[in-house]
Amino acid sequence: MDASIARDFWTTLEPLHVVTYFSPECLEANKRVGLKGYWMGYFGSRGAPLGPVPAGVIEASFYGFRPALVRRAVPDAWRFASPDTILKTRGPAAAQVLRRLAPTIDAAAATAVPQLRAVVEAADGSGRVLFSANRDLTLPEDPVEALWQLATALREHRGDGHLALLAAEGLTGLEANVLASAVGKVPADYLRQSRGWSQDEWDDATTTLATRGLVTGDKATEAGQNLKADIEGRTNTLAASPYGALDDPQALHRLLAPFARAVATSNEIPFPNPVGLPRPPA
Length: 282
Fold this sequence. Notes:
Pfam families: HTH_67. By secondary structure, the chain is mainly alpha-helical. It has helices at about 5-20, 25-30, 35-45, 55-60, 65-70, 75-80, 85-100, 105-120, 130-135, 145-170, 175-180, 190-195, 200-210, 220-240, 250-265, and strands at about 215, 220. The model has no long low-confidence stretch (mean pLDDT about 95).
């Protein structure tokens, strides 16, 4: 299995998933069940498959966020809305968004869901906490909601592998953010603020990376660029294996790509964005 297929599917599945963090229907759904403010909605909805876990579990599995930002939202979120309540609203809200942005998505979802389900079932959950929690949820009967849930599970599968590689390279969540910014993926101020870090904390992490020869000022050195490229390549390798369950992965990718593009060009996903999703080509 060519590892590039994992990158191709990430750029296709991520837009379908990521509406849950930006689109008004999803933000309103979090508010409607009782979650207070954007960050409680974010940590509560993304973390709900894990159950009512303490803040430390969210910090570890989400990796790149300032601990104080997490702890302002968790575990308080579970007092306002149980994970079960959140799970009943997050998928339907995302499906509503996808139907609004890509009105013909139902037919494609009916074809894609059995194939994506086979990919999820083929994926190894060892060490992949967010993937395993999402995989074990009951798959919705609604085809677009099921498509969103499977896209979510696979993006968390890729993400869990990515975080393992970052940790193996001795990069903290903050340092990983600094390196991502230094190679030009996301502007530093935007990424720093979106993850809750102070300027002093960001500067200290930059100094640490500089001592490792990975950055100079706010730019990655050749060593830093090579390390980031290597991590991305190995992330693709770790994420690619489950797609071997498909007879024709490229056909599924071609089926879903127009809907991902419709979402990505809808102006509901910001570019640049904290997850590093690239803007689709013109």
